[in-house]
């Protein structure tokens, strides 16, 4: 009986060892293939660096272009908000006949407050776009410098 229990345990340990060796061999083959899949790139690393530099320049151009379009969109939105506030104040002005009506004063104050907030929000958003663009460009420059 005891011999049978020992054989079972030994068989179980043997299966674990076999599984571990097979996994280690599979990892070794995958690792070998990942590092040595492109031998020409290892022989001539300068061509990869030039391609990386070109890709970095393209990314920087794309970031600058997207930042300009985002700023244009922000400016358009700000102008539309301001125009809507002015239109609403003008509608209230036309609807009231008195020169010094409470609703007219409130509408004008609201319009000026909305225009002020639109300016502040647009400036803050454009500054955030600039900060993001600059951070991306600094990161790309750092990566380029690392490869030089």
Furnish the topology, listing elements before pairings.
Elements: H1 2-35, H2 39-43, H3 45-95, H4 102-147
Short description:
It contains four helices and no strands. With 148 residues, it is mainly α.
Strand pairing plus helix content: what structural class? Answer: mainly alpha
Low-pLDDT segments, ≥5 res: none
Biggest sheet features:
none
The proportion of residues forming helix, as a percent range, comes to over 70%
Explain the overall architecture.
- The protein is mainly α and 148 residues long.
- The protein folds into two domains: 37 residues; 104 residues.
- 92% of the residues lie in helices and 0% in strands.
- It is built from four helices and no strands.
- α3 runs antiparallel to α4.
- The longest helix has 51 residues.
Characteristic key phrases:
single chain; 148 residues; mainly alpha; 2 domains; 92% helix
């Amino acid at each position: 009986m005891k011999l049978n229990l020992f054989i079972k345990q030994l068989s179980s340990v043997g299966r674990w060892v076999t599984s571990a060796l097979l996994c280690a061999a599979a990892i070794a083959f995958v690792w070998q293939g990942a590092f040595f899949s492109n031998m020409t790139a290892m022989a001539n690393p300068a061509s990869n660096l030039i391609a990386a530099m070109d890709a970095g320049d393209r990314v920087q151009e794309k970031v600058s272009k997207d930042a300009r379009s985002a700023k244009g969109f922000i400016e358009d939105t700000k102008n539309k908000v301001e125009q809507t506030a002015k239109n609403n104040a003008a509608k209230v002005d036309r609807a009231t006949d008195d020169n010094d009506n409470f609703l007219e004063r409130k509408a004008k104050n609201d319009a000026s407050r909305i225009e002020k907030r639109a300016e502040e929000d647009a400036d803050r958003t454009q500054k955030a776009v600039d900060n993001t663009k600059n951070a991306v460009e600094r990161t790309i420059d750092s990566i380029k410098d690392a490869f030089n």
